[in-house]
Specification:
Shape: elongated
Largest sheet: 7 strands, mixed
Structural class: alpha+beta
Number of helices: 63
Strand content: 5-15%
Helix content: 40-55%
Number of strands: 38
């Protein structure tokens, strides 16, 4: 039904039309009765009341009701009530409800029904009430059209109507009985009169007769007997007896008259007093409202019965309503009242005809009629005279009268007209009700032209259980409430301490700012108090200077122990409840009430004040004074964003602590949660709440450790230990295992914290807005592995972050994490890779991650970026707050208000990472604001630094690895086209730069988070040009690729598409059969594509081992895309991005023949560049500070070295991948040494093999048995650990102090910085730089297990090892040979290069061993070079002729082997001869000792070797397979013995000869023979023994060699001694 257009006139239905429509519905024309029915209904009809109700609808309504009336049973006594939807014509349901009541006609029906509807708040649109004679009955048919209501309200309305009509019919049915009962009461008074004044009795009887004369509507009556005791006296507190059944509505014994409980009532003290003092007739108000006629409290008439002794024996009670005539008659015409008024006038004794007499008469005539009936004569006189006096001096006055039965108090309040308004009326009523301890049951105002307004208040009270107020005080309170607001406000200002001179201006601005609603609820003193808090607000309402909000907690006398209130003040619009209630709920508070009011001062923005009533369910022990201040501060801190809102804020109420203490606990708990091993936050909150003593002790422990006052850490130790013990004791009482674990781990965390900024202050002297804690992670037993050296956790309301580092000097990026609950887990996974990556640089690995918690929910990138930067700044500030600084004089300074439980720790550098690529300048700005010693070296890659993307350095480094893989497969990818798929897009650094590094790249497919690019048969020339265009295009995507340049069948597809149709070309390129795939499946197909290279340049983990689950991978974002390593069909993987593979996935791919390193190896160039930048900036900064370099030249100087820095970094990538190749070439034979190295690291707590994906001992044994070597990714991890471990050892040794290594320092830096060599020597990281370079050189050239093996075999320390290694490289020019082999890339086969490298490595390892023996004596690198390099050069120049024939033969065999691989002969010969020169140091020592030419001594030495079979025995020893470390050690010792014996015999021969014997091989051989001379038989015997041993079985064994060596040793010993 459409609503009627009210602008159109309503067309009413005529009576004739109504009859016609009615007849049509009922099927017959209306008879006489129907005509009467319709006539009455039409008379009640008004078309504009229900414009939507058409004439046909009305006819349908009347027809249905007529049918209902005819169906009303003839014997029915109860009305038939129907409440439901209104059905119009054709049974249409209209937008109204219909109330229909069919019943026998009676008085008061409509009034009573309308009263019930009004009480139910129902809107009546139309009323029809025909009364008809039907079947001998007079029926009332009431039809009401009302607004539609829900079914529950319909049901309730039906019940209410039934009750009202039941009362109506009960009262009507018993009307005659009740009037008869009244006659009987009058008759009894006349027949048995009480002992009262006959005039009084006559007046009482006249009153009763007056009532019966249509001045009282009788609704109910009941007879009572008064209980008497044996003495005939009244029985106190005994129940009244019902002498007869009640009449009318009192027929129900549950209905009460004078009390709320069930009757019969008890004869209370008040009633007994009334019996003794009152007249025969009592007029009062009943407790209940009438449901008949009008909804008002019923009037009660009590008529006593008296016995022969004149004592009241009972009473008859009538309830009903005075009729309107009773109220309209003059008091002089109403019995009972006329006597009271006349007596009052007479007693007042005013002069007849005087003004006062007339005024008094007027007062009495207009006195509230109900009050006149009930009031005593004395009370009336007193009050009337009081009112009379007011007319001369109008003011606020109260006149109170208590109900004789103590059920209510009637209060007449007079207020001067000019002061009266509804607010005053309400305010005064509240004051009166509060004073009497009751409630306002009713109020009746009287306004006239008189100067006073009268309000009658009826205050309901609990009989005998309410206070009696001091009348004077109550009147004073009311008078104050009735004063004008401005007057009261100015008075309140004065009382609040405002100086008189300021009261006027403040009142002018603020008095009317408080609106009517505010004034209705609060008094002026409250407004003055509120104004004090409003004045504390800032101008904007936003967090910043001063207060954005003000908070005031308070209690009122009405509040219980569990309750308190607070007011919230804010400039601007009202505060949404949804913003406030969660804050209070988090504090454990339940909000019961809320009131909000605007304050509108002149000339200022609107202010809102909100009042909240709260309850603390656990607050029985709450001491309000203890929590008031903390609560106010805590709420304001949450509101203004200085604190978070969660269950930890409950501690503010629970413990009465400040909000920052709760924030500290939150910080500790959030860190524990980030470890991934602790109970949930809910459990932590519960634990702290349930055990407040433990919570307090934890806070005390923290403060004992770190509060600024208290001395040094050593001074605090006893108090800290005592608190630790106390906490342990308290924890014994913790029942829940979860609670115990949560509390113990927080206590352990506090113990492991070394520093905090908690007590630091900002520039304004306020606590820092963030909290940071520095943790010695390895002191926490339950942290997941690996455990960092230190970590800093930062909490703020808008950000959390953690920075993990694995040593005092560490570096790594800070990433913008999107993992709120486990960003530490993410960072820990990354830092493992960072550790491996950092093996090539000075610092060890570190990594940081921060999670911005308040990113705006918008697509506005600038807004999101702005909030992320704010979070980043805070995170960095938290790190620097507790990091030491270095002063200009080089001394270390500690931060203010930081107690350090550790040594100096000034090295902190960061770098860009995911999400923070452009943040380096921001970081350096924070560093500068702290005056941090590193300046803009704090964060590399800023505007004054090396831009990784511009350099393309990360991709170039990864490309070195890719090139090596292909080069070792025999392919030059810089010139020979190759196919590739990748992850990333051209706008990215690593991917974009990477796919431009070779113009031979044929990119078949790639994808990023937006699109999928497929070029099935790419042209490598044109596609490179197009990729370059996209790379140069800002913020490009694959959609920007020129589709015309894509080969047939290819395209760019959005990842948001539901499915993608596959062309034959795509299917062929990806080798798949499907015709259509969804984007996820297509990406998986790309990853499995049969191409040559998979290049990872985007974020995500795409490949895992088949043995791993997606959950174990820990990267939910790529779960759907991820494939298993055994599904890959590429030959090579380049990991330009981090975490593209799991380590297990890499190993599986590598073991299946795939070529892969690790992400840490491939993309280390970025971090390497950053480290160079930091170390260069430290050096340049020193030069600027010392005045050597003008400050303005610093930036250009840094920029000028960009290319050289890039080359130095790429050299590391080249060397590391070469090192892996050489280690891989050692194969399964290296497993034993590798296992021992892993065991050694594990035993020292330096390595967790499971965490790093390295095999355990059982697995190593299986690999040995199966002949499977470690995969390249495993070797990469092992190599990194070897470098890190060796670097630490070198720093701890004396090796960096060797002057020779200053050359390394100089070479480390670009050539342009060579002029700052003096500053290099004082570089803060001088030792670390040397250690890093040397550790890389040693491990790259000699392998990861070499340092440990050499120190064990040579029995030397790290100092000797490093000095010997460097000396060996220089003495034998092995570094030059190494570089010469590297220069043969793509000129000879990779196998040939590997063989040459291995040959050099063998010589280097052996020469390092021999020189380490000499370095143990304290020789420096230069001393060893000076002593042995001339010897080595000389022997190299002599070449093969100085060797024995046996050695010459072996030399020729090596040269041939290298030549067969394609190596150039001149290089192979110079390298091949190095191995027999292993004895060069012995030869040199012998030559120097004998003063012989080196060549001569060499010939003699080798001829001795030939003569005594040393050559043959050493070669045999080298060929013996070694099962394990001990076999190798025994063989090495055997070879050492052989060489010592050869040197001893050479010395003996030389002593017996002269240098000329060394001119030729023959001369040397003759000299040896001559020396043998008489010993010929013995020597021949030795040779025979060796021959016999060699020929005794299948080749040489260690046992045979041992016997042969023993034989020779005897000869040598005899020779030397002889």
């Amino acid at each position: 039904m459409t609503a009627h257009d009210l602008r159109q006139p309503v067309q009413p239905i005529t009576k004739a039309a109504l009859e016609a429509a009615f007849a049509k519905i009922v099927g017959t024309g209306p008879g006489a009765v129907e005509q009467t029915y319709l006539t009455q209904a039409h008379e009640d009809y008004s078309a504009d009341e229900t414009p939507e109700l058409s004439g046909e609808d009305l006819a349908a309504l009347l027809a249905a009701s007529w049918t209902a009336a005819k169906a009303y049973p003839a014997d029915a006594t109860a009305p038939a009530i129907t409440v439901g939807p209104l059905h119009g014509a054709s049974e249409r349901v209209l937008d109204y409800d219909l109330v229909r009541i069919v019943q026998s006609d009676a008085p008061f029906l409509v009034d009573s029904v309308m009263g019930a509807l009004a009480e139910a708040a129902v809107s009546v649109r139309a009323l029809f009430h025909p009364v008809v004679e039907l079947d001998g009955r007079r029926l009332s048919i009431i039809m009401l059209v009302i607004d539609s209501v829900p079914q529950e309200r319909r049901d309730a309305l039906g019940e209410g109507l039934a009750q009202s009509l039941s009362d109506v019919h009960a009262a009507v049915a018993d009307h005659d009985a009740m009037t008869s009962l009244m006659r009987q009461a009058v008759q009894r008074l006349e027949e048995t009169p009480p002992p009262v004044d006959p005039a009084v009795l006559a007046e009482n009887i006249a009153f009763l007769k007056w009532l019966k004369s249509d001045h009282f509507v009788f609704l109910g009556a009941r007879d009572y007997d008064y209980p008497l005791n044996a003495d005939g006296d009244y029985e106190a507190e005994a129940p009244l007896g019902l002498s007869t059944d009640g009449l009318g509505i009192l027929a129900d014994p549950e209905r009460t008259v004078l009390r709320r409980a069930s009757e019969p009532a008890v004869l209370t003290r008040q009633m007994r007093r009334q019996l003794d003092l009152s007249e025969p007739v009592t007029v009062a108000k009943a407790n209940a409202r009438s449901r008949v006629h009008r909804r008002a409290y019923m009037d009660y008439i009590g008529v006593k019965r008296y016995g022969p002794d004149g004592k009241a024996t009972g009473e008859t009670r009538f309830v009903g309503l005075f009729t309107s005539e009773a109220y309209d008659q003059l008091t002089t015409e109403v019995p009972l009242l006329r006597r009271k008024v006349a007596n009052a006038l007479a007693r007042a004794d005013k002069a007849p005809g005087s003004h006062n007499e007339k005024r008094l008469k007027n007062i009495l005539e207009n006195y509230p009629r109900d009050e006149l009936f009930q009031i005593s004569e004395d009370e009336l006189l007193s009050i009337a005279l009081g009112i009379l006096h007011l007319y001369d001096r109008p003011r606020i006055r109260l006149f109170s009268r208590r109900d004789p039965f103590d059920r209510f108090v009637s209060v007449l309040c007079f207020v001067p007209r000019e002061k009266f308004d509804s607010a005053v009326r309400e305010r005064i009523g509240q004051i009166i009700a509060r004073a009497w301890g009751g409630r306002i049951s009713a109020w009746y105002p009287q306004l006239s032209d008189a100067p006073l307004v009268r309000i009658q208040y009826i205050i309901g009270v609990e009989p005998g259980a309410h206070p009696i107020p001091d009348a004077a005080q109550l009147e004073a309170d009311v008078a104050e409430a009735g004063r004008g607001w401005v007057d009261r406000f100015e008075g309140a200002l004065r009382r609040s301490g405002v100086e008189e001179v300021a009261v006027g201006p403040l009142s002018a601005q603020w008095a009317r700012a408080f609106g009517a609603a505010y004034r209705d609820r609060y008094d002026a003193d409250e407004a003055a108090t509120d104004l004090q808090y409003v004045n504390r607000l800032n101008e904007t309402g936003l967090p910043g200077e001063d207060k954005a909000v003000a908070v005031r907690a308070f209690r009122t006398p009405d509040d219980s122990r569990l309750q308190f209130r607070f007011k919230l003040y804010r400039r601007g619009p009202a505060v949404p409840l949804s913003d406030v209630l969660p804050i209070l709920a988090d504090m454990g508070l339940k909000t019961l009430e809320e009131y909000g009011y605007p304050i509108r001062p002149i000339g200022e923005e609107e202010i809102h004040v909100h009042e909240f009533l709260m309850e603390d369910p656990r607050g029985e022990a709450l001491v309000f004074d203890d929590v008031k201040g903390p609560f106010e501060d805590a709420f304001a801190a949450v509101w203004t964003g200085r604190n978070e809102s969660d269950g930890f804020n409950r501690l503010v109420i629970e413990l009465g602590v400040e909000w920052r203490d709760a924030a500290l606990i939150r910080t500790l708990a959030h860190y524990r949660q980030q470890t991934g091993l602790d109970p949930s936050q809910t459990v932590q909150e519960e634990a702290l709440r349930e055990y407040p003593d433990v919570a307090r002790a934890l806070l005390s422990l923290f403060k004992a450790k770190f509060a600024p006052e208290g001395g040094s850490a050593d001074d605090r130790a006893p108090a800290v230990a005592e608190l630790d013990a106390k906490i342990v004791t308290l924890l014994q009482d913790v029942k829940s295992l979860d609670h115990d674990r949560a509390l113990r781990r927080i206590a352990a965390l506090i113990g492991a914290i070394k520093r905090t900024n908690y007590f630091q202050l900002d520039a304004d002297g306020q606590p820092k807005p963030h909290i940071s804690i520095k943790i010695a992670s390895r002191e926490l037993d339950d942290l997941p592995l690996p455990k960092p050296y230190r970590e800093i956790f930062v909490w703020a309301p808008h950000v959390e972050g953690v920075h993990l580092r694995f040593g005092p000097v560490a570096r790594g990026g800070l990433r913008w994490s999107d993992r709120r609950d486990d960003f530490r887990t993410e960072v820990l996974g990354l830092v493992k890779a960072q550790q491996v990556k950092n093996a090539v640089i000075v610092p060890v690995g570190s990594k940081g991650g921060f999670y911005p918690k308040q990113l705006p929910r918008t697509t506005d990138r600038e807004a999101i970026q702005g909030e992320a930067i704010r979070a980043y700044r805070t995170f960095l500030s938290g790190l620097l707050d507790i990091t030491d600084n270095i002063a200009a004089d080089g001394s270390v300074t500690h931060p203010a208000n930081v107690i350090a439980w550790e040594g100096d720790d000034p090295y902190l550098v960061v770098a860009a990472d995911k999400g923070t690529a452009t943040f380096s300048d921001i970081a350096n700005g924070v560093s500068a604001s702290y005056g941090f010693w590193l300046g803009d070296a704090f964060a590399s890659g800023g505007s004054i630094g090396y831009d990784h993307k511009a350099m393309g350095i990360t991709a170039r480094g990864a490309w070195e690895a890719v090139k090596r893989h292909f080069r070792e497969m025999g392919k030059d990818i810089q010139t020979q086209p190759f196919t590739m798929v990748g992850v990333g897009d051209m706008s990215g650094d690593v991917f974009g730069n990477g796919v431009l590094l070779s113009k031979a790249t044929r990119l078949v497919a790639a994808f990023d988070h937006r699109d999928i690019f497929i070029d099935p048969n790419p042209d490598h020339v044109t596609s490179w040009v197009e990729r370059k265009r996209l790379f140069d295009l800002p913020r490009s995507s694959w959609q920007d690729y020129d589709k015309a340049l894509i080969s047939e069948g290819g395209g760019v597809f959005s990842r948001s598409a539901k499915s993608i149709q596959l062309t034959p070309q795509i299917k062929a390129a990806l080798d798949i059969a499907e015709h259509e795939l969804d984007p996820v499946s297509l990406i998986r197909a790309i990853l499995k594509a049969p191409v040559e290279l998979l290049y990872l340049g985007g974020i995500g983990t795409y490949v895992k081992s088949a043995a791993e689950t997606d959950a174990q991978v820990g990267d939910k974002g790529t779960d759907a895309l991820r494939i298993n390593a055994d599904e890959l069909r590429v030959k090579v993987v380049g990991e330009g991005a981090n975490l593209g593979f799991t380590q297990a996935g890499r190993i599986a791919f590598g073991q299946a023949g795939g070529r892969i390193n690790t992400d840490a190896i491939d993309n280390s160039a970025g971090v390497d560049t950053s480290d160079h930048e930091v170390n260069i900036k430290i050096l340049v900064g020193s030069a600027v500070t010392n005045g050597i370099l003008p400050a303005e030249e610093r930036t250009p100087l840094l920029a000028s070295m960009t290319d050289e820095v890039g080359l130095k970094v790429l050299a590391h990538n080249y060397d590391q991948t070469l090192a892996l190749t050489l280690q891989q070439a050692e194969g399964v034979g290296a497993l034993d040494a590798q296992q021992r190295f892993m065991q050694s690291l594990s035993a020292r707590g330096k390595l967790d093999r499971k965490v790093e994906g390295l095999p355990n001992d059982a697995r190593v044994k299986e690999l040995m048995t199966a002949g499977i070597p470690l995969a390249r990714p495993e070797l990469a991890v092992l190599m990194a650990y070897a470098k890190l471990e060796l670097s630490d050892d070198i720093v701890a040794s004396q090796a960096p102090e060797d002057p020779f290594f200053e050359q390394i320092l100089v070479r480390y830096f670009p050539e342009a910085l060579a002029r700052f060599e003096p500053e290099m020597k004082s570089h803060r990281l001088r030792r670390e730089i040397i250690a890093t370079v040397m550790a890389n050189e040693v491990v790259n050239m000699c392998g990861p297990t070499f340092p440990d093996r050499l120190r064990g075999s040579a029995e030397c320390d790290t100092t000797a090892l490093i000095i010997a290694f460097e000396a060996a490289r220089r003495v034998f020019r092995l570094d030059e040979a190494w570089d010469a082999v590297s220069a043969l890339d793509l000129k000879i086969s990779a196998e040939a290069q590997a063989a040459l490298y291995q040959e050099i490595a063998v010589v280097l390892r052996r020469q390092t061993f021999w020189l380490a023996r000499r370095a143990k004596g304290g020789l420096s690198v230069q001393a060893l070079i000076d002593r042995y390099r001339p010897i080595a050069d000389a022997l190299q120049a002599e070449g093969a002729p100085v060797l024995s024939r046996f050695e010459q033969g072996r030399l020729d065999a090596r040269v041939k082997r290298f030549a067969d691989h394609g190596a150039p002969e001149d290089l192979t010969r110079s390298i091949a001869i190095m191995r027999p020169l292993v004895a060069a140091s012995d030869i040199g020592d012998l030559a120097q000792e004998a003063n012989w030419p080196v060549a001569a001594m060499a010939r003699l030495y080798h001829q001795v070797g030939a003569a005594f079979d040393f050559d043959r025995l050493r070669a045999a020893a080298g060929s013996i397979p070694s099962a394990d470390h001990f076999d190798r050690l025994a063989v090495r010792r055997l070879i050492e013995d052989l060489m010592n014996e050869q040197a001893a015999l050479t010395r003996a021969v030389a002593r017996a000869s002269d240098p000329s014997v060394g001119v030729s091989e023959d001369a040397a051989e003759a000299a040896v023979d001559a020396w043998i001379g008489s010993k010929q038989a013995t020597v021949e015997g030795v040779r025979a023994s060796v021959d016999e041993i060699e020929q005794s079985g299948s080749g040489w064994t260690f046992a045979k060699l041992t016997i042969a060596n023993a034989t020779i040793r005897d000869l040598a010993t005899a020779a030397v001694n002889g």
